[in-house]
UniProtKB/TrEMBL annotation:
GO molecular function, one term: FAD binding
Short name of any one Pfam family annotated for the protein: FAD_binding_3
PANTHER family linked: GERANYLGERANYL DIPHOSPHATE REDUCTASE (PTHR42685), POSSIBLE OXIDOREDUCTASE (PTHR42685:SF19)
Region Disordered, annotated ranges: 424-453
Protein name: Dehydrogenase (Flavoprotein)
Domain FAD-binding: residue ranges: 3-181
SUPFAM superfamilies in alphabetical order: FAD/NAD(P)-binding domain (SSF51905)
Gene3D superfamilies reported for this sequence: FAD/NAD(P)-binding domain (3.50.50.60)
Amino acid sequence: MDHDVIVVGTRAAGAATAMLLARAGLRVLAVDRARFPSDTLSTHQVQVPGIARLRRWGVLDRIAAVTPAVPTVRVDAGRRAVLHGHYPAVDGVGALYGPRRTLLDAALVDAAREAGAEVREGFAVEELTREANGRITGIRGRERGEGRGRAPSTSRITATARLVIGADGKRSTIAEAVGATSYHVRPPATFACYTYWSGVDLPVGEIHVRPGLTVPAFPTNDGLAMVALFAPLADFDRFRADPGASYQAALDRCGGDLGDRVRSGVRAEPFRLAPDVPNQFRAAHGPGWALVGDAGVVMDPVAGQGISNAFRDAEILAAAIVRGLGSGGRLDDALAGYQRERDAAALPIYQMTRSLATLRVSAAQRLLLAAIADDPAETTRFLSVLAGADRYDEYLRAGNVLGRLSTGVGRRLCRRPVRAAQIKRRRVRPASAQAAPDHPKAAPALPARENRG
């Protein structure tokens, strides 16, 4: 084999995985059809657990040098449901950052190279190579040169490895090629619209929530503010007929002065629309292959968890591969452990995201926010859930919510007792009770596709 591992896709999940594997001494080839720095559709909040990983990996300094830290946030659900608090500390990091993908992905690609990974940009994978029994053994594709003044040259390349990792996003070519099964599938619920502004003052992060609307606003690098909105997918056609007017009207619905602040700023880039984000888990591994990042688990972006999820799963997968390829290791068994650990970690966040994607604001939710707004410790715990550092299902058990509503401000706000039946919640079964379907023993042939090199 030419390599121990080939990683297809070198954005957040793939570059992080390649970096960690190379640091462990493995021979790693990482390829991507893009060149870096380059952008991709993303609202790019990195939650506190993801930032803690960047610091542990030694990548945060490059991000923090040009991107403001966001240690505090204001959550405004209207009426009296407004809280302002600090994000929790995770491994000594108590802030999120919102670096643009032009910065974040390039920093991770550089870190992978510095760790010893071979990174090839402008490389389009066209097919997978296999053994007679169907086990994946490598990739074939075309590498595009950087020719100047004429059409760039291309070369066809075959590379082999003991494992091929698909880190190529929600429409993963690798997942399709190996026939990875999907589960926990839910249809898209929202669409996103975002853009960047100069001259918009954001001293803290802001999350505005109204029925049918969520608006996050955070500073990013280059002195800009990223202001996004999430609205029901059913409204998308009407919205895109006039995105500028629709966007401004949505911000004005948030109350306060957010709409006026944005109106007084200067839009730096076009509006970007994302109406088609699926919600699903895919089988995480099979004979000679594995998936990581959005290729393996993708969810509505309203919760801002995608990048942090990718970093977590990259760490879990890299550790499993190192064990599986080590002396006496069994790679397939190690990858099965990766899927179990990934699903156990991702499922509560997936359930939270599905809840947030309904874009509903109930009376009980407003009461909860108002009840904890004057309690800094409870506010931080609530923000810990939003950041993915605390479990959503445990925090929102009816008994816990009722306890918060029965103390302090909650008693004053509740003119009559709030019963458990009034608090709508979904029971989250443990991941072990929602196991993935069996993987096919052999990967099917790569389906015919047009040349997209």
